[in-house]
Task: inverse folding
């Protein structure tokens, strides 16, 4: 029994460093902190920007909420104009359906047009229909763009969480310097070579 316990203890001691190295961890002052991409994706799904906050990318929060605010404004603005032209078109269409030989034609027409803004009184129905369809199309477009933007924030949080523990070594260096071959004070070749020398150390 003691041999099994000793063997288990030995195996734990051997595997523990491997398990720690295999995790997504960030070591700071000898404290190991796990960071989960799945959790970042879940947070960003539940509340836009929460995944970025979990990744400590606080500078992205104004971009996230600014984007949603902009899309929300365009959706609301186009929806307002769509409703405006839709109602005007509906009233104009109802007036067009009235029979001119009806004795109450003028009364019915006035009753309908009292709900119509004066700016639309002389606008043809085809123009009202054009603007109605145009604003509805723009509104639907921005709704789709908002959904895509929402998905992008989730993807961004997930990818950022994967790279959260990415370590750039201090040994990484990049050096670019000119070089000349065949040109010196003691010998001069007929075809000297001049260029750039790139060296990367990692």
Result:
């Amino acid at each position: 029994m003691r041999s099994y316990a000793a063997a288990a203890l030995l195996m734990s001691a051997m595997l523990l460093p491997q398990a720690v190295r295999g995790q997504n961890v960030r070591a700071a002052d000898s404290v190991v902190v796990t960071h989960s991409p799945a959790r970042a994706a879940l947070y960003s799904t539940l509340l836009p920007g929460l995944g970025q906050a979990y990744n400590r990318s606080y500078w992205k929060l104004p971009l996230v909420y600014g984007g949603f605010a902009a899309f929300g404004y365009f959706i609301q603005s186009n929806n307002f104009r769509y409703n405006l032209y839709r109602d005007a078109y509906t009233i104009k269409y109802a007036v067009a359906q009235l029979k001119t030989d009806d004795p109450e034609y003028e009364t019915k027409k006035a009753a309908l047009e009292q709900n119509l803004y004066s700016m639309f009184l002389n606008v043809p129905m085809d123009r009202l229909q054009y603007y109605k369809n145009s604003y509805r199309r723009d509104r639907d477009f921005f709704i789709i763009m908002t959904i895509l933007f929402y998905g992008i924030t989730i993807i961004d949080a997930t990818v950022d969480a994967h790279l959260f523990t990415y370590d750039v070594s201090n040994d990484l260096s990049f050096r670019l310097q000119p070089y000349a071959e065949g040109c010196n004070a003691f010998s001069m070749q007929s075809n000297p070579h001049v260029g750039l020398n790139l060296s990367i150390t990692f």
Observations:
- Helices lie at 2-22, 37-46, 50-54, 61-96, 105-113, 125-162.
